[in-house]
Each structure stands twice: as C-alpha cells, then as structure tokens.
Amino acid sequence: MTEKLKITKSSGNVFRDIGFSEEESQDLIIRSRLMLELTKRVEKLGLTQARAANELGVTQPRVSDLMRGKISLFSTEMLIGMLAKLGGEIRVSVKFKKAA
Hints:
Layout: H1 14-17, H2 22-44, H3 49-56, H4 60-67, H5 76-85
C-alpha cells in the first residue's frame, strides 16, 4: 500500500515553516544570506581555508564551520565584518507587510 504524502505550501520562509518565531526566522534568513555571500566570495577568490582564515583574521576551523554552513556559530555582526575584510559592501533593505 502506498502512503499518501501530505504537502504543505511554504510561507516563503523555510525557517518559519520549520517552527522558528518570526523574529528568529528573520535573523536566520539574514545570517544565511550573509554566509552564502561569504562562502561564494571565498570560493571565487580561490582561497584555501588556511588563506581565508588569514585574510579574515580567524582560525582555519572557523572557516571550515563557515563553509559547512554552521549558522548557529556566527552572528550577523561577525559575518558583516568578515565580508568587509574581503571587500564586501553590505546594503540593507526593509519592507513592511501591508496593514490588515
């Protein structure tokens, strides 16, 4: 007998969908985007983890954590600082939902 899968439509925010509060999910989205940009930049520059660590002023295991997406180990402030060290310019955009 085949089980029927229940499919739930996403809200567009995977962190909210898996149970984080609105505030936590927004923070996780921001950190995940910063981590993605930082990882892409390290790869584009062709940096080894050791070289990236030197450029970023952190240890190689810390770069490994970054490259493996260990989001809980990084603050927004830390990620912004790391991006700035690699020449990144961070811009902020805020949107408000329409009032009900």
